[in-house]
Fold this sequence. Notes:
The complex is a heterodimer of chains A (123) and B (472). Chain A has helices at residues 3-18, 25-35, 39-48, 53-81. By secondary structure, chain A is mainly α. Mean pLDDT of chain A is 73; it is low at 87-118. Chain B has 472 residues and is an alpha/beta fold. Helix content of chain B is 59%, strand content 7%. Chain B has 16 helices and six strands. Chain B has helices at 4-26, 32-51, 53-56, 65-89, 95-119, 126-154, 165-189, 197-216, 224-246, 249-272, 277-282, 297-305, 316-321, 324-336, 355-362, 452-471; strands at residues 309-314, 340-345, 370-372, 385-389, 420-425, 445-449. Chain B has a six-stranded parallel β-sheet with strand order 3-2-1-4-5-6. In chain B, strand 2, helix 15 (355-362) and strand 3 (370-372) form a beta-alpha-beta unit. In chain B, helix 1 (4-26) packs antiparallel against helix 2 and helix 12 crosses helix 16 (452-471). The mean pLDDT of chain B is 82. At the A-B interface, helix 1, helix 2, helix 3 and helix 4 of A face helix 1, helix 2, helix 4, helix 5 and helix 9 of B.
Amino acid sequence: MEPLALLVAAFAGWLIxxxxxxxxxxxxxxxxxxxxxxVVVAGLQILLNASGPAEQAAxxxxxxxxxxxxxxxxxxxxxSLGKFRVEATREPAGTPAVLAPRHDRRRSSAPRRKVNTKxxxxx
Amino acid sequence: MLNGNSLxxxxxxxxxxxxxxxxxxxxxxxxSSHGIRLVCLGLLLAIFGSLLYRFGANVAxxxxxxxxxxxxxxxLMAGAAAAWLRSKRAQGGSLAQRMALFxxxxxxxxxxxxxLELFTHAARGSQLLATLSAALLxxxxxxxxxxxxxxxxEGAHRAWYLSGRPALISASLLxxxxxxxxxAHAALTGDATRIPYSGLLGLFAAAGGICGLxxxxxxxxxxxPVAVSVGNAMTGAAVAxxxxxxxxxxxxxxxxxxxxAAANLAQSAAKALGRSIGDALFWDIPAIASEQRSTDAGNAxxxxxxxxxxxxxxxxxxxxxxxxxKLGEVVKLxxxxxxxxxxxxxxxxxxxxxxxxxxxxxxxxxxQFIIQLADAADSFSGADIALVIGANDVVNPATSTIKSLPVxxxxxxxxxxxxxxxxxxxxxxxxxxxxxxxxxxxENCRMIYGDAQSVLANMIEAMKRGELAQAA
Lengths: 123, 472
């Protein structure tokens, strides 16, 4: 693969993130870590071509850790994005989209906000 | 005719496409929750695409293929299930700590692969160098992640100061590089048998780990986001290097995208602290941390829109700029977004007692939204954000401690108690009393420099843009 293509890929990552507002930086950091899970691909390659215990052990470890990375990454990223979820519109058209609160908010005067008891990270 | 390999190629292509589009959607508030699902889909495509290699593999040449496939299935299931359950159970635990730790998972996976390549002498030539670099980066990232998470766990808000920190860090890094060069030289010239090869590899990894330790240990907790992002970029680079060793484009592309993205995030995190990345990682805290940090109106507006409770403190700057109608619009937008908005009015705000109430009433802000000084005491401690508009002395706690002040003894609004404080101000100067405000130099304070009229207009624009995107 051309080194130049790699440069373009890095630049693409830089550009995409530079468009995000500061409030999204935490979810973006965890999404980047989520993407490290792609190392599973290399682990699988080793494991599926393994012909001895050493290769099996290393491949197994890499796949195990990568899969754990993927699951944690999804849970953490989706969890920290939960507060941006737009509630499924069961309201009459024209009312502004209401955010689904993630946790119990200490408010008494919130007539327009419905409490969504669904857990946000479950998709 | 599609065989296993071309299907694998197709799934790699789709995977990279999904990941890039997903990141793009992640970078905007209204589409971010779709974005993470798209990224996840891309990752799954890459992983299951690579499982297709099984069907391209020569069964006769690899007698263990069936066992290996079972092992792969077990590892995937067990890793994912364990981590998923763990992160579900830890709901409510510190998000920052989990994030700091899980950067280490990917790095550990990379280390496992690199160790195999190095110990079995599978890598040759430049691939050996790439594997060594990947191992070094992963070792630094792994030890950094472990230390970072331990620091957040204890809640130990102190840094372990080391004198001559940059020198120690570069010494350990140089040691690791020298060891790596020695290993590479021995392996490339073919006399790896004459040196204690495995021992040197262990030393090499240990030197990398110590380097990560030395970087992360002295860092104060406030600077950790920078360190975590830099570790993130390192792991991304290690992924890309491994991709090069195994000739896997999807690893290379995704790794480099992560490098770019994480570098940008590290820079943003450092900028938010008013420091550069190098300062945050290698140098101690400046002795006089009296710098005011700034942000822009759009970012502040989006944080306010997603906050639970916002308290606004208007002052002379609002009255002078005649920006009260704009403030009325901001309040209306925040209320429409479901935010609990209050306006805390100091009796002498705007330098003429009582004028602020009239201006606010003109702008349609009255009654239940206004809190007076007497009731304001505890409303700030429960607020996510306090927005101070052109006020200075009325939020300056120094008025109760410094007797020489012209406004000594004046009760003030404790805006600094809010989790985040935004201050709209025309410049860095002091207020009417001529004294600097220590609250404005606090850890939680961000200045928005500009005229109240134009800053509020920018905020309204940013919020409306967000609203439109949400409706679309």
